[in-house]
Amino acid sequence: MGSPRHFGGRSLERLLQVRKDFPITLHGVSLSIGSTDRLDQNYLNRLKRLIGIVDPLWVSDHLCWTGVGGENIHDLLPLPYTREAIRHVTDRICRVQDFLGRRLTIENVSSYVAFSHSRMTEWEFLNEICERADCDILLDVNNIFVSAVNHGFDPMEYLRAIPGKRVRQFHLAGHANKGHYRIDTHDRDVCEDVWRLYAEAVKLYGAVPVILERDGNIPPLKDLIQELNYARRIEKRSRPQIERSPALDEVDHRRSPRREKGPRRPTRETGLQG
Ligand SMILES: [Fe+2]
C-alpha cells in the first residue's frame, strides 16, 4: 500500500491497470489478527481505502500473529489452540469485519512449533473461529501438508474437517524437504504429495479458485504456466460431478454485494502470486 503519506503511487496505478481486465483479491500478511497488541488502526484505515479503490472480490489474511509490543517480526506465527485464543481472535476478526464492512477470508499458516497448552487440533480451532466470526477460509493445501509432517497429523483428517461452504480459495506452493521436517519456502515447484492433497481437496470442495504462490527462484513464465496447467488438469479430473451449491455466494453477498459491472467473477480460476 506504500507509506501512509505516499498511498498508492505507481504500484496502485499498475494494480488499477490490471484491475481493468482481471478481478482482484487482496491478500495481506500484516493484520496480525492473533496478536495481543491493539489492532493497527492506521493499517486498517489504509486497507479500507484500498478496498474502496480496488473493489476486490475478497480480502484475506492469516490466522496467526506477526509481532507484539509494537514490533513486527515478519513471520506468520502459530497461536495456542485454546478457548481463550478463540475468543480473542474471533473478537478481533469481528471488529475488523465491522470496520471494513465486509467478510474476511482467513488462511491457515504452516508451523514448526506448537504450544504445550493447546487443547484442540488446528482444524478445530480454525473452524470454530470461522463459525463464530462468520468469516471464510483460504485453505493453503501446502501449509496443511507442511504442518502435518512437522507435527505428525494426518493431512486428510484436516481436509475432511473443513466446512466446504466457507472455502473461498486454495493456495498451492513448493516447500523445502529437510527429511523429518519441512519448511514453507515458496521457492520451488509444488511437490507430488501436495498435488495429491490438492486433488483430494478438489474432490471435497469442488472447483475453488487457486493461487500458485512463488516468492523465490522464480522460473521463466512458461514454466509457471506449465505448473498452472498441471493444476488445471488435476482440478478437471478431480472435480465432483455435482457442482458446489451456490450457498457460498449467498453468504458472501450479505457483506459484499454482487457487482453489476467489472471483471468476471472467477468461479474456477487459477492464478499466480509472488
Ligand atoms: Fe498461502
Topology summary:
Layout: H1 9-19, E1 26-27, H2 41-54, E2 59-62, E3 65-68, E4 71-77, H3 83-100, E5 104-107, H4 122-133, E6 136-140, H5 141-151, H6 155-161, E7 167-173, E8 176-177, E9 182-183, H7 192-205, E10 210-213, H8 221-238, H9 247-253, E11 270-273
Parallel strand pairs: 1-2, 2-5, 5-6, 6-7, 7-10, 10-11
Antiparallel strand pairs: 3-4, 8-9
Helix pairs in contact: 3-4, 6-7, 7-8
Could you explain how this protein is built, in words?
This protein is α/β, with parallel strands linked by helices and 274 residues long. The protein has 9 helices and 11 strands. Strand 8 and strand 9 form a beta hairpin. The longest helix is centred in the middle third of the chain and has 18 residues. The chain is globular, with a radius of gyration of 18 Å. About 9% of the residues have low confidence.
Instruction: Indicate the CATH class.
Output: Alpha Beta
What is the spatial order of strands in the main beta sheet?
A: 1-2-5-6-7-10-11
CATH architecture: Alpha-Beta Barrel
Identify the overall geometry. Answer: globular
> What is the number of domains?
1
> Helical proportion?
40-55%
Tell me the Rg in angstroms: 18 Å
Distance between the termini: 16 Å
